[in-house]
Amino acid sequence: MSRTPHLRTAVVGTGHRAQTFTRDLAARPGHRVVALCDPSPTRMAFHNRLLARAGAPPAAEWEPDRFAELLAEEDVDQVVVTTVDAAHDRYIVPALKAGCRVVTEKPMTVDAVRCARILDTVRETGNSLTVAFNYRFNPVHERVRELLAEGAVGEILSVHFEWLLDTRHGADYFRRWHREKRHSGGLMVHKAGHHFDLVNWWLADEPDEVFGYGRLAFYGPEAGTRHGLRRAYDRAHGAEEAADDPFALDLAADDTLRALYLDAERDDGYHRDRNVFGGPVTVEDDMAVLVRYTRGATMTYHLTAYSPWEGYRVMVNGSAGRLELEVEESRWQPPRTRITSGSGALHGDTAAEHAGGVRLTLRPLWRPPVDVPVTARHEAHGGGDTRMLDALFGPAASRNAGSTAGTGSTAGTGSAATERDGALALAVGLAANRCFDTGRPVRVGDLLPALGPVDGAS
Asked: What average pLDDT values come out for the chain (458 residues) when binned by 10 residues?
């Protein structure tokens, strides 16, 4: 009996987030990770150990400068890009030109020039790109989409969206490379891109104009000194001043973080445990944005990266009522919380010890409010990771792909995001960043002409 050949995958960027893809593809029928690409041999060796634990053969290890050779010599079918955000296009473009299927972590890229390069390559090659917006596959978010599509609030007129990052998760963006906008595009691109994509998807519309204000209000040297929070160390490892600092991260205390980052410092000098009140920090931590969509709806959005609790509130106002969602990812965090996740995660793939509830409420005009039943999970990005992986790579043999959305199952109605979806989510963040500098509203079509007409076709 003949066997279906495995899809041969290269994972580019072997840091923390890449573990999700390496482990999943190693265990998923019909797939094989044949190549790893990263500046650090230590991190690639860690991922090869993940493959070995899954009973998969080792992957070849490649340096980034030899990526074109990797594609040819390893006979790669698909490429998963999980590098530093600013490097995504460096791998997306040649992989598309080589005819590979490409899945990239969000954000698709970090600026308009790189975005245009990716969109132009898609048009030239006829190959498509998938952006891994896992929040589309969260069952609660899918239920919101269903209700809005069914007309539960009538014509959608406005949205208010507030996202709160606590002083564990939010602070973590200021310990690592994300704190420099040249690497990450800032939190408007790296983090809020998730949220902008959700609203684009929920509304089945496209952003037209953006205005906003943002500043570094809590982290960084100036604010840290002003608030009496700054301590005199550059990075936490080996620093006496960091020993009892609730904002410090102890890499040596977690096996995964030690293996991926502390042990890998000899390869590239990257420090994963920088002082959040040290410099340089070139991204904002408090941002307010106003977006107008092509069919007239507006969104007010606020991201706070230093909150005592973590979660989000979304309110959708329509001609027939209002839909309200509140999610408490953590009610509070004690200082110096030890990381216990096997993947070394500070957030995302493991439930917070003090996670709260999820409430979805429909408030029709002239009728009593209705509590919409939902089944929620706090780990694996609300259940989105597992369901997204099933959608991208086919259902795992051990799970029932016939389950319905909203039940906490792995199947769902979430649709994978395309390169246009990725560009539209990016556009809101880039426009907001420009507003922060100029104080003037920005039209999406002017910022990203490579998108073509912004007309609400989703």
From this structure: 70 96 94 98 98 97 98 97 98 98 98 97 95 95 97 98 95 97 98 98 98 98 98 96 94 95 97 97 98 98 97 98 95 70 61 79 98 77 82 74 38 77 98 98 95 65
Q: How far apart are CA 8 and CA 393, in angstroms?
A: 12
State how far the Cα of 285 lies from the Cα of 339, in Å rounded to an integer.
23
Alpha-carbon distance of 307 to 304, in angstroms, equals 6
Question: How many alpha carbons fall within 13 Å on the CB side of residue 306?
Answer: 19
CA–CA dist 12, 33 (Å, integer): 11
Residue 2, judged by CB atoms within 10 A of its CB (0-12, 13-18, 19+), counts as exposed
Residue 415's pLDDT is: 86
Predicted local distance difference test score (pLDDT) of residue 389: 94
Please give the backbone phi and psi of residue 435, each rounded to the nearest 5 degrees, phi first: -60, -40
Maximum Cα–Cα distance across the chain: 71
Which residues contact residue 441 at a Cβ distance below 8 angstroms, ignoring those fewer than 6 apart? 209, 210, 211, 435
Which amino acid type is present at position 165? L
Residue 34 to residues 12, 47, 136, 339: CA-CA distances in angstroms? 11, 12, 28, 31
Residues 6+ apart with CB under 8 A from 89: 109, 114, 117, 118
pLDDT of residue 411: 44
- Rounded (to 5) percent helix, strand, coil in the chain: 35, 20, 40
Cα separation, 50 vs 60, in Å, equals: 14
The string of DSSP codes covering 97-164 is HTT-EEEEESSS-SSHHHHHHHHHHHHHH---EEEE-GGGG-HHHHHHHHHHHTTTTSSEEEEEEEEE
CA distance 165 to 142: 22
CB 103 within 8 A of CB 22: no
Backbone angles phi, psi at 419, to 5 degrees: -65, -30
Edge-first strand order for the sheet with 101-105 is 60-62, 31-37, 7-12, 78-81, 101-105, 129-132
Read off the amino acid at residue 426: L
Q: Indicate the pTM of the whole model.
A: 0.92
Cβ neighbours for 243, distance < 8 A, ≥ 6 positions apart: none
255 backbone dihedrals φ, ψ, rounded to 5°? -60, -40
